[in-house]
Amino acid sequence: MKQEIIIAGFGGQGVLMMGKILAYSGLMDDKEVTWMPSYGPEQRGGTANVTVILSDDRISSPVLDAYDVVVALNQQSIDKFSGRVKPGGILIYDSNGIHNPPVRSDITILPIDAMEATFRIGHPKAYNMVVLGALLEAMPYKLPMENVAKGLMKSLPERHHNLIPLNREAIEIGRKLLSK
Amino acid sequence: MKGNEAVAHAAIRYGCDGYFGYPITPQSEVLETLEALMPWETTGMVVLQAESEVAAINMVYGGAASGKAVMTSSSSPGISLKQEGISYMAGAFLPALILNVMRGGPGLGTIQPSQADYFQATKGGGHGDYHLIVLAPSSVQEMVDFVGLGFDLAFKYRVPSMILADGIVGQMMEKVVLPPFRPRRTDEEIRKQCPWATNGRTGKRKRNVVTSLELESSRMEEVNHRLQECYREIEKAETRCEEIDTDDADYLIVAFGSIARICAKAMELAREKGIKVGILRPITLWPFPKEAVRKAADGKKGILCVELNAGQMIEDVRLAIHDCIPVEHYGRLGGIIPSPTEIVEALENKIIEK
To answer: Cβ of A125: how many Cβ atoms within 10 Å?
Structure first.
């Protein structure tokens, strides 16, 4: 098993944090993991992305040019990464504000309305957890929810552990966006 | 955890006595993590944010002169500022650990990853005939391991060690196994391990002097010869590298640090296409693994040096093999990281189709 994933969006959307929780969840599931962020000014409002690799074996490059799963949360990210999904791979994107949706017939394209789902919870900061839920649902590698819960515990500082139930709820709502 | 955070944990666990630093991207997490962990309350390790890089390196000089295990970290422009202090430490036979998480230059450059400080790290950097022991980590685990190795080698040979990392290894998160806690050495143990240290005369021992100054030329030459002898010993005993599938390969890629990992992926892609490539990854950049490169090059059709610079390590590779087979360079500058596919293309265009 090897999953090469990139999550891309605006700085501030929680892209890096989402990748971190995914990486820690993989770690809790006994996988080799690598989390490689874009860093610096991008974290503060530009475009941000994070590459997460989960694997049974030793991971070579932390930097890739083709991915099994791409999560794109704005138009720029769709433009940049839709061509880099491996044939047969998956592209998940948030359809809000997208005027130029991705077109490819050799991959699975999954639009989600994560923003609307987030408003339903009434907690806008849980947006990235909704997206994470959708990613976990769509990803061929099925990460057990108990390990995602452990991943949340590991990656959130203790003072935020009271938010874990809310985050889990958001993940479940995200899952439902893609479970049929 | 992140590579930079891992260094902080490793330093405390090694029994490091002091860290003196000044923030600069992409390595500020070293100082931040140390401050968050507050080791002065547990092991007694000093963590100090100095007023500048120059101050920090001179604090390291002072700590090292008293036999303490001390370190500093910075990124390229900050390391340039530290060069005077590093040269003085080399001249005074002082052990210390310096971490450079390289970013693009010259000047303030960019905060994105680079390997453009290879020359500076391996050929001296400051003035005078000296070398540092230079270790190039390619994973977060090696960031941890090289803290211990760097200190051990520094004390064994009384030479400053440098961990030459880059923004990728510093910023990326991976699984790590941390070493067990080791207590800091007691004053008694330091006296025993470092009889040269200026840590107060007890009993009737001779006065110790730690200096890089010697105005009498014949004595200065002697000091220089002693340094050079020490370097020859290090070259003999401490050269390290990793080889991946070099035995059956037609072509060789030589790359260090995180870029060697990208090359490993490129190697997988190339082998899928039927191109037999192997990788040699120097772990010690100084001493450079000349013998290993020479042996690995034997029978190969060509070598591609992949570096995040305009061609620096390639000089050592060409010297090692006396240009007996074609050696070409591929690199990106200014913080751009090459993709595995790009490296395969470079191998095809620069070596195979030539």
So the answer is: 14
